[in-house]
Amino acid sequence: MRLRPSTSHWGAFSAALDEDGNLEVVPHPADPAPSPLLGNLPSALTDPTRVAAPAIRRGWLERGPGPDPRRGDDEFVEVGWDQALDLLAAELLRVRTEHGNEAIYGGSYGWSSAGRFHHAQSQLHRFLNAFGGFTSSRNTYSTGTSAVVLPHIVGNAGDVLRNGSSWPTIVANTELLVAFGGVPEKNVFVTPGGVTRHHTPGFLAQLAERNVEVALVSPLRADLPGQLDARWYPIRPATDTALMLALAHTLVTEGLHDQHFLDRYCTGYAQFERYLLGSDDGVPKDAAWAGDLTGIPPAHIVDLARRMAGRRTFITVTWSLQRIEHGEQPVWAAIALAAMLGQIGLPGGGFGHGYGSMGDTGDIGPDFRVPHLPQGTNPVKQFIPVARIADMLLNPGMRYQYDGAERTYPDIRLVYWAGGNPFHHHQDLNRLRRAFTRPDTVVVHDPFWTASARHADIVLPSTTALEREDFGAGRRDTHLAAMHRIAEPRRRARDDYTILAGLAARLGIEDAFTEGRTAREWLHHLYGTWRNNLADKGIEVPSFPDFWEAGGFQLPNDESDRTLWADFRADPVTHRLATPSGKIEITSARVASFGYDDCPGHPVWLEPVEWLGGERASRFPLVLIANQPHTRLHSQLDVGAVSQAAKVAGREAVRLHPGDAARRDIGEGDLVRVFNDRGACLAGAVLTTDLRPGVVQLPTGAWFDPRGSLCVHGNPNVLTADLPSSRLSQGCTGQHVLVEIERFTGEPPGISVKRPPVISRAREM
Ligand SMILES: Nc1nc2c(c(=O)[nH]1)N[C@H]1C(S)=C(S)[C@@H](COP(=O)(O)OP(=O)(O)OC[C@H]3O[C@@H](n4cnc5c(=O)[nH]c(N)nc54)[C@H](O)[C@@H]3O)O[C@H]1N2
Ligand SMILES: Nc1nc2c(c(=O)[nH]1)N[C@H]1C(S)=C(S)[C@@H](COP(=O)(O)OP(=O)(O)OC[C@H]3O[C@@H](n4cnc5c(=O)[nH]c(N)nc54)[C@H](O)[C@@H]3O)O[C@H]1N2
Ligand SMILES: [Mo]
Q1: The pTM is what?
Q2: Terminal CA-CA length for the chain
């Protein structure tokens, strides 16, 4: 049995099949903290939910393209590859001829798998670009709000998202870490594209050894590793902005703010200060005011503000905090607060975003781009902010606001998805189901019968990363991994590249798409180009055959840890920011000029719809946190062993406080129904005092298993609201939703998503 190298979004490994066909997985020897998620790989490879052959929805096959309410409930017909590709090529041509390229939605958001050549979204975009273009999507579900507001505050979102202080700098210099959303260890195993050495768990351990003072601001205690002796501020969800404003208020009223820093490096502080003091609205944003909103005693707020001013303080905000209504505010308020402390640009001081959200944030690996597939250019300029998918499908021609511009939704006839699962990632899935009745045709490539595949008309089985050859590395990865074929493609699965090349041949764009190369030739070519570019910069890496034979190599290091912020601090004129003022914009005249009441010109407290202080809370008195799962990546490999082992009563586990459970006669392990006016799901109850009373937690990613508006498996996105963070960013707000919970009595409905849908054979193949 020869172990062969590969990588995944949660870590590099090698693997082989034994004589009985069982997959053995061994973590990369250089990885000090391999991810438990590797345990999902073995059983998933041959799971019954793998798509065996191309499948077409019966209604579409028999009646042809068109809107159809049966999508998601219909059965499928297995067809041969030639028939599937002939039908799809003809449909692509029909849509292009009758409606134009803009009628094809190819945003295809999603994480697919590691491996830079077979990256499904890149493959699809390259193919659709060669076909004349498509309506695309902007931003992500991860940082869809920050990515739009940060350029207004600091000029370049990447400077905050990717170029902040490194963990070693924080460990060595920070005296007080104020972590809004904590530093959830479960998340740091993941980096898009792969990660060979998981450094962050080690850095967290060093924080503990160094006795760095940590303030954990989160409704969940589990957002910080247990070994860190933190002070826990169990905040009421969605009220962090109020807490930050009160901390800022305390600083200014006690004269603890750094006026010199604010004058030299920032603009618009005076206006923000008037708001803090309540000069215009008569409401000082003081600790007493915030105490009522946040549930944190005012004395604790004042004390925290004083401690922050008295030592080297690093303020971090997880990405989850901007995945809510008005998600711009906590990010902007945290930057304003850090500016008032005057430590931005000092080692271990200032502001960070996404520490504990992703493995590469603050990591120390080299930072250069690894080989990747060129996508070409998209002649179609139409796009949507990614989380507006359902709005777009339901409202063609409707006008909406985005980042200061008025835009119009296109009229989409064909939806094409490869490497993502919108019926995992989008909010209000019952609404998304209605939206998915609208297009003429929905196409999905996926290795598995995901909920999105089940809502498609044409389902094409793609290989998994284990069944093909590729290379992979994530940002800040220490190694470039050769990804060898570890298993033969399952049944009739094909690589996305092969599928799209087959379509391209039928559409007369084969040369543009394939450039005459096989997949293996592409690997050679992309690697070779990259290697030549590095050689021009004096960096030597192995030849492709040596790289492939060795299974990977360690990337050359770049030692520098000087951040852009240190440069800005040293000289804000030479290193001016890309904002209109060149400074940090605590008030943005530009944002103010848009006139959005849901995102005015400086950080403010705005009441969301979905929170415990609002009107809806009388009917749905619990706030559910739908965060990332610790047992898998999103919906991927939910059928895998690690994910399955954590299910309770056969469903996803929902955590709630014993007091909240007792009032509802709910016991440990009970099957419960979580509901609101958008839908309901079943889940298994786990009782814990490690969360704030009134808060429940149900992670994302249980495969959506609808019976009417009820998901019997525990997917929180049947409950979440399809509301944008604001008109500025139109980001996703899936992190929070108001719900009620009751014990489920009666016969528990069985789970059906662990089997494929009903599939019959074509009458003519
Ligand atoms: N309520 C709520 N919702 C959320 C969030 C939240 O906090 N709360 N978080 C959001 C965030 S941050 C994100 S990033 C999204 C994630 O949403 P997605 O990225 O859509 O989720 P994944 O489950 O990773 O979907 C990837 C799909 O690609 C498939 N795949 C893997 N390899 C290949 C391949 O080689 N080819 C093809 N064709 N397919 C492949 C997998 O089987 C899987 O179905 O979810 C978002 N949704
Ligand atoms: N294991 C695993 N790791 C992952 C992923 C995965 O699916 N599985 N997904 C990856 C992806 S794509 C992304 S974008 C990142 C996402 O990174 P994040 O968005 O940061 O991750 P989440 O787990 O959704 O949220 C982090 C924590 O924020 C806390 N929180 C929620 N609401 C509030 C609030 O109102 N106030 C405060 N103070 N805290 C709050 C929650 O308790 C939660 O555990 O994770 C990445 N890492
Ligand atoms: Mo994400």
Answers
A1: 0.97
A2: 39
